[in-house]
Amino acid sequence: MSLMGEPMGIIGAGRLGQAFARTARRADRPVVIANSRGPESLTSVVDALGAGITAGTTRDAALCSIVALAVPWASIHGALAELSWSDQIVVDATNAVRIPGLEPVPLGGLTSSEIVAQLVRGARLVKAANTFSADVLGADPREAGGRRVMFVSGDDAEAKRAVAELFDAAGYFPIDIGDLVAGGAMQSAGGPLAGHDLVRIPAPWE
Ligand SMILES: NC(=O)c1ccc[n+]([C@@H]2O[C@H](COP(=O)([O-])OP(=O)(O)OC[C@H]3O[C@@H](n4cnc5c(N)ncnc54)[C@H](OP(=O)(O)O)[C@@H]3O)[C@@H](O)[C@H]2O)c1
């Protein structure tokens, strides 16, 4: 399944949501971006992000076939409460941390994406784009002769492929690290992949 060319919804229009919008534009995707205060509040954000970006409601964003979640952990229930899902791919870029100290929130042994999966029943969840800062996500992923690594995890192979395809088109080197339990744990706040900005350099024979 290829979703190339289809609009991407982004729920959360702060630092990470805007960086995600830049990434989607690098992959030549139109973007519908939403926050809690409505599209009128996003005029200056949309103007600054440039062509291909429109503001919408969270419902508008959630109607896209691929939707990124970029809201603070404390807002995740509120942001998702009124939305319904029917096979959309949801890219969970959240971290279960307290703001501003970034201490991990205890989750009773679950990964954050397992909790998000329960909140987006009917969607196909992929964890990605949460392991480095918004500044890094928004920048050109072609670095030092290589491509920045983007880890993806999830339980739906087709959804992971579609998300990997998006990041690949944006210039990233996507790596599938498994399902939401194993891969999601590695990507989680405090996990072994959290905070690393890795660049994949091609081997000499490539
Ligand atoms: N910033 C980073 O470097 C970074 C890196 C990796 C992962 N993350 C993760 O990305 C997520 C967002 O972080 P951020 O730094 O981008 O936060 P942020 O700059 O504070 O932006 C948060 C955005 O979420 C929106 N929002 C809050 N509640 C909402 C709701 N109920 N419905 C719709 N939108 C809502 C806010 O809209 P309003 O302003 O209208 O309330 C705002 O646009 C967090 O889970 C964070 O852990 C961030």
Biggest sheet record: 10 strands, mixed
Task: Provide the domain count.
Answer: 1
CATH architecture: 3-Layer(aba) Sandwich
- The level 1 CATH classification is Alpha Beta
Tell me the β content. Answer: 15-25%
| Distinct small molecules bound, one entry per kind | NADP nicotinamide-adenine-dinucleotide phosphate
**Any idea what the shape is?**
globular
Class by alpha and beta content? alpha/beta
How many β strands by DSSP? 10
Number of helices: 8
Helix content: 25-40%
Distance between the termini: 27 Å
CATH fold naming: Rossmann fold
CATH homologous superfamily annotation: NAD(P)-binding Rossmann-like Domain
Mean pLDDT: 96
- Secondary-structure element pattern, one letter each: EHEHEHEHEHEHEEHEHE
Indicate the radius of gyration in whole angstroms: 16 Å
